[in-house]
Amino acid sequence: MTARPATHSGGEAIETFLAMLAAERGAAANTLAAYRRDLEGAEAVTGNLARAERAQLALLGSAWSDLAPSSLARKCSALRQFFGFLIDEGLRGDDPSPALPRPRARRPLPRLLDHAGIARLFAQAEDEASGDEPAAVRMLVLLELLYGSGLRATELVSLPLAAVPRDAPFLTVTGKGGQQRMVPVGSRAVHALSRWLPLRKAGSRWLFPSRGAQPIRGHLTRVRLFQLLRALAGRAGLDPTAISPHVLRHAFATHLLEGGADLRVLQTLLGHADIATTQIYTHVDSARLVALVNARHPLASLGLAAYRRGD
User: Active-site residue 246, yes or no?
Assistant: First the structure.
């Protein structure tokens, strides 16, 4: 079946698609910007993307040949959703997306920070925050919430002051797609927060206000958080290039699994829409799972010799 000519130009169709993502799926600004880059990049190769035929989409295979498999998979996913939207809206009568390249991408395993590394990072932060220096106390709070609650960098820096718990040890976090979830806050983090609140800049609605005279966003930026964390790692004697906010989020998830947390609970804490995303952490716990089987399986109560005898 040939494509039915679309009444939209490529640019108009892309704008309509992005508006749908924002209105119906609650897509975040960063998500919409990524979709826009992917779709407009494809249109630069194919011409009017809304009317692209399979032969034109096939050109993307060579145009994107240097991309990492994960990047290629993301771009192809955006295009498939775009063409599905056009079909649903009656703007096309066919689906050309089978002509898109099909990368066999394996999700990369997260970089990990072991318990010793975490201990060194916290020891340094606690030593520096032993007084009332605002920057040091803030760094301790940031560290507590990254590792203690598993927050994403964007979720952490954009926390409003209203998210701080009053009577219950929970934060109200707005995650990807504008989805809200309740995240438990440990007693250590609650104590660190109680020290930080009197020291933070007054008059700001953000928990971590920017120190600039005329801040663009009004709160600490992701880039600055990244810089602060790496600087702390260097002072703690750790490799700064191996530390990031996401590494601490991975450590939070991994160490909870090691402690026996249920995968569904971990999915809720991390704010993953799909449990398949959470399952990436199961690889790090293989040793514990083997030990669990050896210790808890009914055969474990039988000695090897008894098992062979059939006792």
Answer: yes
Q: Which residues pair with 176 in a beta bridge?
A: none
Q: What is the pLDDT of residues 19-54, one digit of tens each?
A: 999 888 888 888 899 999 999 999 999 999 999 999
Domain that holds residue 140: 115-250
| 82/152 same-domain check | no
219, 249, 250, 255: the active-site residue: 249
Q: Can you name the residues that pair with 171 across neighbouring β-strands?
A: 183
- Is 201 among the catalytic positions? no
272 annotated active-site = yes
Concerning whether 152 is annotated as a catalytic residue, the answer is: yes
Can you tell me whether residue 197 is helix, strand or coil? coil
Q: CATH number for the domain including 220?
A: 1.10.443.10
pLDDT digits (tens, 9 = 90+) for 66-102: 888 878 888 998 999 999 999 988 888 899 999 998 7
106 as an active site residue: the answer is: no
- How buried is residue 86: exposed, middle or buried, by Cβ count under 10 Å (0-12/13-18/19+)? buried
Tell me which of 8, 92, 138, 152 is the catalytic residue.
152
pTM higher than 0.85, yes or no?
no
Residue 265 lies in a domain: no
